[in-house]
Specification:
The protein has 122 residues and is of the alpha+beta class. 27% of the residues lie in helices and 23% in strands. The protein contains three helices and four strands. It has a four-stranded antiparallel β-sheet, with helices on both faces. The two termini are 27 Å apart.
């Protein structure tokens, strides 16, 4: 297993994985999410490879108070092998370096940037 930051040439494989895992939504263009993430803390967008194949992803963020995790996905044939655990450990290690601490808060969110319809069909 190799964990590394996302590279632009991973985009199609990442979106395919997210679709396989049921993480995409018609109102939420994954290409837009990727583009947005690459503008803020791109080092917290991680992928896992096995034998050169992309098999898992995790997109994390830190806004000064809390660490956030989105798009934690593991390819169905690669589940139960520790990919999600290792990705979470890597993300938390990186977030701790930014001041991340465990928090007992419940958070709610509201979409501020609506996606425009795109050519992408999940």
């Amino acid at each position: 297993m190799r964990i590394r930051p996302f590279r632009k040439d991973d985009e199609d494989a990442v979106i395919t994985l997210w679709n396989e895992c049921g993480l995409t939504r018609a109102w939420n263009d994954p290409r837009n999410d990727i583009a947005r993430k690459l503008t803020v803390q791109p080092e917290l967008f991680l992928v896992a490879e096995e034998g050169g194949q992309l098999v898992a992803t995790l997109m994390a963020g830190y806004e000064g108070h809390r660490g956030w995790v989105n798009y934690l996905a593991v390819s169905p044939p690669h589940r139960r092998r520790g990919y999600a655990r290792v990705l979470m450990q890597q993300a938390e290690t990186r977030l701790v370096a930014l001041g991340y601490l465990r928090d007992e808060a419940v958070s709610l969110g509201k979409r501020l940037i609506p996606d425009q319809p795109s050519e992408h069909k999940p």
